[in-house]
Amino acid sequence: MSRSVEAAIEWLKTHLHRLLEAARDRGAMLTDKIQQKIQEWIKTLVDEVAHGGVGMQAGLEGVRAALTGKNPVWAAIKGLASGLSTKAKIALLLLLTLGLLLGPVLLVVLLLALLVMAIVAAVRAAAG
Q: Whole-structure pTM over 0.70, yes or no?
């Protein structure tokens, strides 16, 4: 009987070693795949930074300014404007001008609406 127990233990050891080797190989394969994915992501990020869009350029300018102790918001705005095409710059300038011109008008309309609401509330309170 002791011989059959020893044989069973040996069989168990052999299969356990096989399972551990398979798990190790599988883990190494997964590690390689993860490493390849990370390298792809880094390459994509580097390519985006090197040939990046306007948003990426603005973000990088903001980070660069923050690291040098300057205002990151203003640097990001400058980076955004420098990366825009001429048509986009003209459209942005027109939108800003329109906003500056209509801003006071919208403020007056808002104040008038608040005044009317206050008068209506006062009349209701006096009547009720």
A: no
Convert the pLDDT of each residue in 75-121 to its tens digit. Answer: 888 888 887 778 878 887 888 888 888 888 889 989 999 999 999 99
Instruction: Name the phi and psi angles at 12, rounded to 5.
Output: -60, -45
Strand ranges, E, within the chain: none
| Residue linked to tokens 């009349």 | 123
Report d(CA 76, CA 83) in Å as an integer.
11
Instruction: Report the helix count and the strand count for the chain, using DSSP H and E.
Output: 4, 0
Return the residue matching tokens 């918001």.
Answer: 73
Contacts of 22 (CB under 8 A, 6+ apart): none
Nearest partner of 52 among 44, 40, 63, judged by Cα: 44
